[in-house]
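C-alpha cells
________________
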Amino acid sequence: MTFRSRVLPALALATALGACAQDGQLVVDQGVGITSVLTSCPAVGIPDYTGDVTTFRTAGDPIAANLDVSASMTNLRATCDDGSDKVYSEATFEIRARRTDVRGARTVTLPYFVTVLQGGSAVVTKRIGAVTLTFADGEERAQASAKAGSFVDRAAASLPEDIRERITRRRRAGDPEAALDPLANPEVRAAIARTRFEMLVGFQLTEEQLVYNVTR
C-alpha cells in the first residue's frame, strides 16, 4: 500500500515564523527568504482510504442491502515528548460506528495499525492493535476511544552538523551564495528527507475493504 496521509504538522520542513520555534528546533532565517522549522517529532496522520471500514453480512457482496457495520476514525490528536534520545509520540483517536441490524446487544472488534515511516516510504515499525465497540440492544451507534504510541531515535531525526551548518551559515550581501536557497541543494534536501518521520494510524483493512474504500 502506498501511504498518502492527512497529517498533523508536528514535523518536517514547515513554513513558520521563527518566533514560534521551541527549544531544540532548527530555525532558518538568514535574510535569504528562508524561515523554516525542523523538529524531531514525527508528523501524525491517517493514510488516505484507511480512516473508514465497512463490513458486510455476506463476504464478497459489497452492496448497501448487505451492509453490516461501518466505522470511522476521527478526532486524531497527538502529543510528543522529545526530551530524551528516544522521541515518544502518542496518538489518541475515536472510533464511531453504526450497524444496520439493531436487534440485541453486540460487541464488534476492529483492528487498526500504527506504522512509523522514515523519509516518506521506509517502514521503520508496524504494530497491530484492536478496539472493541459495544452496541446496546436497540442502539444503532457505538463509540470507543483508543491510542497508539511509537518511539523514534532522536539521532535519526536530527540533521548532521555539516548539513545544519550549510543551512544556517550566515550569508553577507554580495556573497555569491547569498541569493542561493540552501534547501534547494539535492544533498541538503536528501538529508532533510531522511530526518522526516511520520506516525500513521488507520484501520487494518482486508484487500476487499481497501478496494471498497477506494472505489465507493
Remarks:
- The first helix runs from residue 161 to 168.
- Residues 50 and 202 are 5 Å apart (CA to CA).
- The first strand starts at residue 5 and ends at 8.
